[in-house]
Amino acid sequence: MPATPKRLSHLPRLLALLGTVVTATLSQAAPPAERLAERIKPADLDAQSVLILHYHRPDGDYDRWNAWVWTDSGEGKSYAFEQETDFGRVAIIPVDHHPDRYGFIVRRGNWVLKDIDRDRFVSPDKTNTKRRVTEVWVNSGDPEVYVDGQAIDLSPKLIAAFLDSPKQLALASTTPLKSRDLIEAVLQTEAGDIALGSIQRSKTPSPGSVAYTVRLKSEVDAASLNAPLTLAIPDYDPMTVYARAVLDDPSLAPLDVELGPVTNAEQTTFTTWSPVASSVDLLIYEDGIDSKPSQTLALERKSDHGVWQATVAGDLHNVPYQFRFTSYGQQRTVADIHCKAALPGSDFSVAVDLDRTNPEGWDTHQPPRLAQPTDEVIYEIHVRDFSMTDPNTPEHHKGKYLGLITPGVTEPGEESVTTGIAHLKELGVTAVHLLPIHDFGNDRHNYNWGYWTSLFNVPESDYSTTPDDPANTIRELKTAIKVLQDSDIRVILDVVYNHTSSSFEYSPFDQTIPNYFFRTNPDGSLRNDAGVGNSVADERLMVRKYIVDSLKYWVTEYKIDGVRFDLLGTHHPETVQNISDELYALRPDLTIYGEPWTGGGPIYFGKGAQRGMGVAVFNDHLRNAVRGDLDGTATGFATGPNGDTHAIRNGVAGAIDDFSDSPTESINYVSAHDNRTLWDKIEYTHPNASEEEKRAMHKLSLGIVLTSQGIPFLHGGVDMARTKGGHHNSYNQGDEVNAFGWDRKEQYRDVHEYVAGLIELRREHPALRLTTRAQVRNNLKFLKNTPEGVVAYTLNGQNVGDDWDKILIIYNGQPTAESVKLPPAAWRVVVDAHTAGTETLAEARGNQELPPYSMMVLHQ
Length: 860
What we know:
The protein is built from 16 helices and 43 strands. It is α+β, with helices and mostly antiparallel strands. Strands 15-14-11-12-13-10-9-16 form an 8-stranded mixed beta sheet, with no helix packed on it. The chain has an 8-stranded parallel beta barrel with strand order 26-27-30-31-32-33-34-35. Strands 36-37-38-43-40-41 form a 6-stranded antiparallel beta sheet.
């Protein structure tokens, strides 16, 4: 285990020491920034180094504020600002090593708010190497980290000002403004000064500031927002006013304009949108990015909408470029957020002639079609995980797009298992769900799941065999998609439009149009709805257009078969409806689904919001009912006695009595890339269970998913009892934890064959794939008077065109054998505790005993 920041084990000693320090400081009437470092010795805190972090809040409210601190060799921990000084509050952070630097975030509670929405870093005090004590000061709302507290200006200041409509400002200050401050205040515009009217204090919390809504006495001309706007209040420094929600004025939203580069052998046309820019320059790097730009050209502002465009003659295929935006008195050089290709690192866009990225046969290639949504059987995989340990994959294809399409069939006599495409075909799934492949600027030496998008229209170069050749990266991804689809395996992309990998000056989105693409508080601080630092503001017209245009691009250019939305709950219903309308107009058989929750922020699109949209959501009610909790030891129907049979029945019926209009809106699952794998969960919950018991629980869990009404979703490798060694959040744990354990396929051959048999059963029988509420109501009937912990039901196959007149499905969720009285007449068994499929295993009538944690499928 790496060394990590730690709390002092002897807390009373720390408090006593701090009490002495604070008392001495106050009794000496010390200035607010008196140093405490000389009074603290690391050895007294059982530490090798100590960070002292002073924190000042102008409002004096320190309730629940704390410092989240980490070092270069460990994970973060929370440290309270426990002691009071004249400056404010102080946190003492002892660590058991000598770090190269400390990182910290000041936050409220458990990430409710952040004071400064970015990581800040402190280098150890090099002048104090013997004592190893570093002391710094921070002031709320100020990103600067001070080594001298007396250098901090604590006088009242304006923090931020935003234009949210032609007649409304949002204003934030460090201390409350007085009415006399505003009497002579004006908004200075190119057309003249505008006086301020009414002012109202905002009720929305803003860390380190007091926020106001200000009405202007006349409107700002929306067409002149690329000219300076300055708020002038006597006795305060002038404040630049940023155009924010005002940019949603329809006159500024070119919803019908195609943005981004279009390249062919003769020319490239570059088009972007920035209504706040006074100029936009195109920097072209034909000689490579280590040289100066070979061409610098000014884009032309095409209209008052803020659209900028330039056409450059010549063949720029695979040539890097950037945009330089001039806005609010600054020049900002960044990648093109609408680009289709980029260099590793995501700082340089690349122009590509997309026709030259097509593999052979692409123009006439047609993806496999889906007759109805419930025909889909989804298998979730990560590009790298799938092939890194595949013995049939060539070494240079492992972990790459091309590793997805290893045939996977071994030569006779070779000691290996079926892998790759052959494995997918053998299993019988209809689609692979790929964890994010949008460019996420990953360091090639670091593993990552990819939920950290940098550029949404660019495929991640780390999965290419030629990461420095963007055109070939696109070609390899298209090749992988084509080969999968030619094998009747559809391709669904996991998309992350709810947040991006960077903010502020590090974000090409924020530099293209500052303060527009992300949700912000009244004072301009980032909202953290997604739980990862920023949240994309899809409620804004041009942000919504960006998302929809991007999705349409992936459907048309890459011919993908569906999308899965990360944290769909952060998106507004209007956005989801727009996505549904636009994508289904392109392809009615797409599979669209997402997570109806957020990363801690308000839920805009929860379970039930999808009704009638053609969008499905993950059914976590069924998941929890089957397995129990995600990472703890709570049991569910298939993993412990006396499970919630009511929740199982709701899930079996496609959630039509829960949150869905039809079973097509329910994604049924028990495990995914997040949290413990199903096998790890069972092992953690039942460490003393026998191998037979664990396999029984595993099979029953998957059996419920694959025989319930709705769309089944399987975590890749679950058919081999996939393990991650108990890790519940393996997003950066590397290949050792995350790679497919192909050697487990033979070890758990019975599990694999059981799952494959259930998929075969599902795909051959339409009674298991009903599509409407009425079909479920009319044809699915639960048996009464079953033993406790047993769920049984029949499906009327005759009414829905099934070859079997009636199907009977029974789940025993008890750790004991249970006897169930079958409906009259003889039944043919096709699934029992050990075998699944469509072939008759036995005939049964009367009472039928089910072993512990098992299921049966019978038919007439």
